[in-house]
Design a protein that fits this description.
The chain is of the alpha+beta class. It is about 50% helix and about 15% strand.
Length: about 280
Amino acid sequence: MKNSDDTNKTRVNILEFQLGDGWNVKPAGGSSGEAYIAWMGERKIFLKRNSSPFLAVLSAEGIVPKLLWTKRLENGDVITAQKWVNSRELRAKDMGERQVAELLSKIHSSAELLDMFQRIGNKPRTPELIVEELENCYHNLEEKHPAMADAICYLKEELQYVSPAKMVVCHGDMNHNNWIVNSRGDLYLIDWDSASVRDPAYDIGLLLHEYIPEKEWTAWLDHYGLSLTETLKTKMNWYVVSHALQQALEHQRKNDLLTASQWITYLQTASFKTTAEKKREQ
């Protein structure tokens, strides 16, 4: 059986052959292992295997660096080439900038992106579907934690306050490393492997809870184009809890107990105060 190093060498050789004489290719790193940098002299491009099928729309709207070409290889793999951008990743402290909120709003407002995503058959991630999948995953675990059960109870009780959800294309991974800015100040959001059709509160909630102090949420959302209502707060907390539970369940299933325990610890400190409880306190 080939190990990962052998597989990478084979893929590099295939890519160099496809590009032609003079081109050099090396892995670009990253968790997926599917990205590569190719160069010949001063020319440089970014390559990816089996990237998002709506990369062309993302490129046309200026959300990712320009798509140069797409090729299908004999083995069925699809290779995309994008313009190389001399850029830097955003730092955690940069996530509060107006440009981040405006680009995320542009993505969530893109009818073309949503249409493309729906045409390729992606099922919307409704709150009801999310709860059903999380509950099934929880019941299939051999070792269960009370914090997981508490989270499921909270998510089920709050369903009536987060549905029906507005559906948009969400990126799904708001890590600051996925936001890059070039020397001219153009901002891009890359790595669309986790994208799905969801309520925009999913992306917004993960970003705000991770990076932005709560006292600054109103100003950030003004740049996005939303008001900080109690309904939005409820939705954001619901999606943050559901995401944390999904991560805990997934890592527990993979027997990655250290990472699972970190997400369980997060769940133990999360707010499970329901809308009904808040109303009683008023």
